[in-house]
Design goal:
This protein is an alpha/beta fold. It has helices at about 5-10, 20-30, 35-50, 50-65, 90-100, 120-125, 135-145, 160-170, 175-190, 210-225, 250-260, 265-285, 285-300, 300-315, 345-355; strands spanning about 80-85, 105-110, 150, 195-200, 230-240, 245, 325-330, 335-340, 370, 380, 385-390, 405. Helix 5 (about 90-100) links the parallel strand 1 and strand 2. The protein binds uracil.
């Protein structure tokens, strides 16, 4: 077997065997296969796709690259959630504390930003001193005592996803159903939860562009979950406009805290939906009963307090959060109705401002990002502030950079 034959086979659209996938991906993990060879194989997968069988095999190879956590010693049903990626999507930071404050434990492995989509790990790392690289013991201990734990992939836990994920981000190979499914499902299965909710984002600001692809992804994720004795539920949600009015790592942490303190917005709605599904499945109660618990947790500030406990349990210091950036104002050029806020363009703009990165030489600026001041459907007058941009870069923004807003 050799890597060139495997790349060429996939470039012709042929199905790879378990052994061939294992040779390529384990070889890459062990540094016997170069970045350029793996990116070539990944691109062949993006272009030609993979069968369900190949995707399930790749998921298995990812899982076996590290340990699989056994959470049975906790003696409770453990839940998890994952988003396929969007703009302004900080639901994990809201859902985790809500669910844990309602007495349901959530064990989560998150990822960094991928393409224009944000990543929970970057958001957590924007909190000074927050530790996303937990040992197995720390992971279990925090799950037991706090009820919500969130870690990155490590050398122990799906190390293959950690390495391939970074390469995908830097090589334009993010938008592939089999690669997304194996990346997400390997993390979900390795971290040991019993009930897994996947929020499949669809739209111009998501990695998945069509409902047909989202349905296929949902089907494959459920089938893979079942083969590992996991209950997988999916929701399919819109990502043609940003989920919240804050885009960028620290801005999203602040927004998640506002939502946990009761701010009413789309991010709250999505978080209520996800949290109530997880709680109803874990506690075997109706969704209405679960929603009542969710609303009480927010109203009583139990969920917000749980967020603070979660942050300090992983070493983070909320009091040290400081957004340091230059602010530029984007105003409406005309009066009318705000017809659209294009999520893809907002994501590209956030990347340009420094909120994400496209190669390993770049560093994320945690303060960079965008705050939106109008929602789709709002009436706006000429010169009204549509957004403020936070950046530490010296960039000249063209009209094209800020054409995310359609006012008619
Ligand atoms: N989230 C992941 O963890 N992996 C992907 O490929 C996409 C979103």
């Amino acid at each position: 077997m050799n890597i060139i034959n495997i790349i060429e086979k996939k470039s012709l659209g042929k199905e790879l065997t378990y052994e061939e996938l294992s040779y390529a991906f384990n070889g890459y993990l062990k540094e016997k296969i170069e970045d350029y060879q793996m990116s070539s194989l990944l691109m062949a997968i993006v272009i030609n796709g993979m069968t369900f069988e190949e995707t399930r095999n790749l998921t298995d190879i990812f899982i076996k690259s590290g340990k699989v956590y056994d959470l049975s010693s906790i003696g409770e049903v453990i839940v998890d959630k994952h988003s396929t990626g969007g703009i302004g999507d900080s639901t994990t930071l809201v859902v985790g504390p809500i669910v844990a404050s309602c007495g349901v434990k959530m064990a989560k492995i998150s990822g960094k930003g991928l393409g224009i989509t944000g990543g929970t790990i970057d958001k957590l790392q924007s909190i000074p001193k927050f530790n996303v690289y937990l040992s197995k013991m720390e992971f279990l201990e925090n799950l037991k005592t706090v009820g919500f734990v969130d870690s990155s992939q490590t050398d122990d836990l799906v190390p293959m996803d950690k390495k391939v994920y970074n390469l995908r981000n830097n090589s334009g190979t993010t938008k592939s159903i089999p690669l997304i499914v194996s990346s997400i499902m390997s993390k979900k299965i390795a971290s040991g939860a019993d009930i897994i909710l996947i929020d499949i984002k669809v739209g111009n600001g998501a990695l998945i562009k069509t409902k047909t692809d989202a349905k296929l992804m949902s089907d494959w994720m459920k089938k893979i979950g079942t083969s590992y004795n996991k209950k997988v539920v999916t929701i399919i949600s819109d990502m043609n406009k940003p989920l919240s009015n804050s885009i960028g790592n620290l801005l999203e942490v602040e927004e998640a805290m506002n939502v946990l303190k009761g701010k009413d917005c789309a991010l709250l709605e999505t978080s209520r939906e996800i949290a109530s599904i997880l709680i109803s499945l874990a506690k075997k109660i109706t969704k209405e009963e679960a929603l009542e618990e969710v609303d009480n947790a927010i109203k009583s500030k139990k969920a917000y307090k749980k967020f603070l406990e979660f942050v300090s349990s992983q070493g983070g210091d909320i009091s040290k959060i400081k957004i340091k950036a230059n602010i530029k104002v984007v105003r409406s050029k005309e009066s009318g109705i705000l017809k659209a806020i294009n999520a893809e363009k907002i994501g590209e703009l956030a990347l340009k401002l420094g909120a994400g990165k496209i190669n390993d030489r770049q560093k994320i600026d945690y303060s960079a990002g965008i705050k939106l001041f109008k929602n789709v459907g709002d009436r706006v007058e000429k010169n009204d502030v549509l957004a403020t941009l936070y950046t530490n870069k010296h960039i000249n923004l063209s009209n094209d950079d800020v054409n995310c807003f359609i006012v008619e």
